[in-house]
């Protein structure tokens, strides 16, 4: 809840940063090159088929979902686009799949997400590096190896967030998947997959500033800004008050900065950014800061009473009770000053759109004293009893 009148005014100042866009580079139902595993897919190196330079022109190709079902008994199996021979008929346990995809700027990739709908198990590689396996034993699995257990088509999701850019190269890359059946008598095999990259193209914004937009303060020499992410290139001359640049700047953290200004005269102060600022995030390539201006007011004549909300409790299930024996939520005020504070005309609210929701009665809060107010909705304003 908000305490109005002498506590600092709090106004929202958040430019919500949307999450980094995910670019789908391999979609479901894509066309794949594939090789039925009656032998290793490459020799003498059985792993070279996973590399982008491998020649797969002699392989078959077809649209996913790829597999067989004898008979179909699940929703994915009714949608098989490319039919394979059964393992009983062709004598195989695995199928090798390759799909190229293009990445223009690997350094900007923050996450790789691989979805594989599979029956029974698989191992996946990007440019020859294994990125995950599902329902498969550990170690090197030959072409005639098998999945751990027989299952129906199941969606598996791999999210690679640790140095995803290191797996990629500018230009063409290769996704390789080897799908395994659990046994040669299996009645089905199934594969469909998608690959998406999260790319940091979101510019840094401001999520908090002090003084806040529209606030009235008694004095001013310091302005603090908090960015939505770590930034670089922040200088004292980047931030201006009424057109005058800051005297100095201190970095509290890579996203928190304070600026020092000469003490201004009373009045409305306009906060603006240097249009030629060099503030960016740490992405590669960097995203420039989207500057936003605001204003606040300095009034040296306003009085300040050091009363704060010192504590509050919600979902009071086992705590103290009000005069009716109810365990209502409550708010505690504390007078930090050395003089009594009159609370008459103050308001409590839980809605920024309605700052005068509940008015405190004419009551004095002694120096260094506390006042508990029940947030019960009972609207009790008798100063001789609990509020």
Features:
387 residues; Immunoglobulin-like; Jelly Rolls
Largest sheet entry: 6 strands, mixed
Summed up, the domain count is: 3
| CATH classification, class level of the largest domain | Mainly Beta
First-last Cα distance: 15 Å
Q: What is the CA-based Rg, rounded? A: 32 Å
Q: What is the overall pLDDT average?
A: 88
Beta-strand content bin:
35-45%
List the helices and strands and how they pair.
Blueprint: E1 2-4, E2 22-26, E3 31-36, E4 60-63, E5 66-69, E6 82-83, H1 87-90, E7 94-103, E8 109-119, E9 121-126, E10 129-134, E11 154-160, E12 171-180, E13 188-199, E14 206-210, E15 216-217, E16 222-227, E17 231-232, E18 239-241, E19 244-245, E20 248-253, E21 256-260, E22 267-273, E23 280-281, E24 294-298, E25 307-313, E26 329-335, E27 341-342, E28 347-349, E29 358-359, E30 364-365, E31 370-375
Parallel strand pairs: 5-6, 15-24
Antiparallel strand pairs: 1-28, 2-13, 3-4, 3-7, 5-13, 7-12, 8-11, 8-13, 9-10, 9-12, 14-16, 16-21, 17-23, 18-19, 18-22, 20-21, 22-24, 25-26, 26-31, 27-30, 28-29
Describe this entry's structure for a reader:
By secondary structure, this protein is mostly beta strands. The protein has 3 domains: 2-17 and 202-298, Immunoglobulin-like, CATH 2.60.40; 22-199, Sandwich (Jelly Rolls); 307-375, no CATH class. The protein has one helix spanning 87-90; strands at residues 2-4, 22-26, 31-36, 60-63, 66-69, 82-83, 94-103, 109-119, 121-126, 129-134, 154-160, 171-180, 188-199, 206-210, 216-217, 222-227, 231-232, 239-241, 244-245, 248-253, 256-260, 267-273, 280-281, 294-298, 307-313, 329-335, 341-342, 347-349, 358-359, 364-365, 370-375. Strands 2, 5, 6, 8, 11 and 13 form a 6-stranded mixed β-sheet that branches. The protein has a 6-stranded antiparallel β-sheet with strand order 4-3-7-12-9-10, with no helix packed on it. The chain is elongated and about 90 Å long. The protein starts with a strand and ends in a 12-residue tail after the last strand. Residues 1-19 have low confidence and may be disordered.
């Amino acid at each position: 809840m908000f305490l109005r009148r002498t506590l600092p005014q709090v106004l929202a100042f958040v430019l919500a940063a949307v999450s980094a866009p995910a670019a789908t580079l391999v979609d479901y139902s894509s066309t794949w090159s594939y090789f039925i595993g009656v032998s290793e897919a490459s020799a003498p190196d059985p792993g070279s088929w996973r590399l982008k330079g491998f020649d797969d022109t002699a392989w078959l190709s077809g649209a996913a979902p790829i597999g067989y079902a004898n008979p179909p008994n699940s929703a994915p199996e009714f949608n098989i686009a490319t039919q394979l021979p059964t393992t009983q008929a062709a004598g195989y346990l695995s199928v090798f799949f390759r799909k190229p995809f293009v990445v223009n700027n690997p350094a900007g990739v923050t996450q790789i997400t691989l979805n594989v709908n599979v029956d029974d198990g698989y191992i996946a590689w990007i440019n020859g590096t294994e990125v995950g396996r599902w329902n498969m034993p550990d170690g090197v699995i030959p072409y005639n190896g098998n999945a751990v257990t027989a299952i129906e088509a199941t969606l598996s999701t791999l999210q690679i967030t640790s140095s995803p850019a290191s797996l990629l190269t500018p230009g063409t890359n290769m996704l390789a998947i080897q799908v395994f059946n659990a046994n040669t008598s299996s009645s089905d095999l199934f594969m469909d997959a998608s690959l998406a990259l999260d790319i940091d193209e979101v510019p840094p914004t401001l999520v908090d500033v002090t003084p806040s937009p529209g606030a009235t303060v008694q004095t001013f020499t310091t302005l603090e800004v908090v960015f939505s992410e770590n930034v670089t290139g922040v200088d004292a001359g980047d931030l201006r008050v009424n057109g005058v640049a800051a005297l100095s700047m201190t970095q509290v953290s890579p996203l928190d900065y304070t600026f020092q200004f000469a003490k201004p005269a009373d009045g409305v102060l306009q906060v603006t950014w240097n249009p030629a600022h060099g503030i960016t995030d740490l992405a590669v390539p960097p995203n420039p800061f989207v500057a936003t201006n605001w204003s606040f007011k300095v009034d040296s004549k306003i009085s300040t009473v050091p009363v704060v909300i010192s504590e509050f409790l919600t979902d009071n299930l086992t705590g103290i009770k009000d005069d009716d024996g109810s365990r209502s939520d409550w708010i505690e005020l504390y007078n930090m000053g050395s003089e009594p504070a009159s609370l008459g005309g103050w308001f409590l609210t839980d809605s920024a759109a309605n700052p005068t929701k509940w008015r405190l009665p004419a009551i004095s809060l002694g120096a260094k004293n506390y006042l508990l107010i029940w947030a019960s909705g009972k609207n009790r304003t008798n100063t001789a009893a609990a509020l």
